[in-house]
Design a protein that fits this description.
Number of domains: 2
Helix content: 25-40%
Number of strands: 11
Number of helices: 12
Largest sheet: 5 strands, mixed
Shape: globular
Length: 354
């Protein structure tokens, strides 16, 4: 273990020396470099290319990840793009986990592939956030599928939510629109949607899932996406195989197969720029909406910052309802009702221009 201090170039030099020790000294090492995620691929990006060029094997851990989890330390610390910068390096395997058990599975795989019997000449990049929340237990009842999904890029975290009752369209809501709150108790059905989340945005997704079921009669399932980059790489590989084997059996990307099981729109929410989930948009065969943190952004609280970037639960709900309205499965006044109910100002400027 090396404590390098504030010296990104020196720390990367140490990592490169350790990650290539298997070749230069015949001593396989397992270097793990923790740093502010904003300063890794951005500040020492050329050295990450050197790491790949020299066939280095190690783990980079981008701490205080995301654009909204470390508000207050200045814009230079608000990382909204490191998975994109990392994705251009062909030697990098990139993961954006939400839970401790996801990190454990990814780390176990990385260690096996770095110092196992058949080591690979590549390195791993993990995002680690600066936000405390209660960690769910590993879902043992579906352990194999969850473990495989974590490594391949996504797995279903929660099944479709049960809609709690029938709509009461008579009572008025603020803003003069019809009421759509659900009452009573019946299982879900009818309108459906899928929510994708990464990192701490699981909280917004799960809150929105409950709100959609309770207030709008929309049953949504939720998927943890641990790596849009892995999903994209798989889809590109399948696409290439189909193109070069026109007479062979047609294959389908993992992300397509996973999301083809559901119905309704797919809304992805991330603490990074929309370009991160947009990496897989063309392989999603359902209406696809991405919510992310494009722009600068500054605030005194996470809640205010997430409202500014439009990645909180209220905006997830509005995105689902708007997508349903586009396909004729919701009414425009439902979308307007939700905007009014959650105190969203539709006249604010685009977050990425403010």
């Amino acid at each position: 273990m090396l404590e390098e201090g504030i010296t990104e170039a020196g720390a990367m030099a140490s990592l490169i020396a350790l990650s290539t020790a298997y070749a230069t000294w015949g001593r396989p090492m397992l270097p793990i470099y923790l740093f502010y995620s904003m300063f890794g691929f951005q500040r020492t990006g050329d050295l990450t290319w050197l790491l790949g060029d020299t066939r280095g094997r190690g783990i980079l851990a981008g701490c205080t990840a995301g654009r909204t989890t470390l508000q207050g330390e200045g814009l230079q610390h608000d990382d909204g793009h490191s998975p994109l910068l990392a994705s251009v390096n062909p030697a990098a395997r990139i993961y954006d986990p939400a839970f401790a058990y996801e990190i454990a599975v990814i780390m176990e795989e990385a260690v096996q592939r770095i110092v196992g019997p058949e080591p690979e000449d590549r390195f791993w990049y993990l995002t680690l956030y600066n936000e405390n929340y209660r960690m769910p237990a590993f879902p043992e009842e579906d352990a194999d599928a969850v473990r495989s999904g974590i490594l391949r890029g996504m797995y279903r975290f929660a099944g479709p939510a049960a809609v709690t009752g029938e709509a009461d369209a008579d009572a008025p809501e603020p803003g003069g629109h019809g009421r759509h709150r659900r009452r009573g108790g019946r299982d879900g059905g009818g309108r459906r949607a899928t929510l994708l989340f990464s990192g701490p945005m699981w909280q917004a997704a799960m809150e929105a899932r409950d709100m959609l079921a309770a207030d709008w009669g929309v049953s949504a399932d939720a998927w943890s996406v641990t790596s849009y980059t892995e999903l994209r790489a798989d889809a590109l590989s399948v696409e290439r195989a189909n193109r070069l084997h026109p007479d062979g059996a047609r294959r389908s990307p993992f992300v397509s197969d996973a999301l083809d099981e559901g119905a309704g729109p797919v809304v992805a929410v991330t603490d990074y720029m929309r370009a991160v989930p947009d990496q897989v948009a063309r392989w999603v065969h359902r209406p696809f909406v991405s919510l992310g943190t494009d722009g600068f952004g500054r605030s005194d609280t996470r809640a205010a910052l997430r409202r500014f970037f439009e990645v909180d639960a209220a905006h997830v709900v509005v995105a689902v309802l708007a997508a349903l309205a586009e396909s004729g499965d919701a009414k425009a006044d439902e979308v307007a009702d939700a905007i009014a109910r959650y105190g969203i100002d539709p006249e604010t400027v685009d977050p990425w221009t403010d």
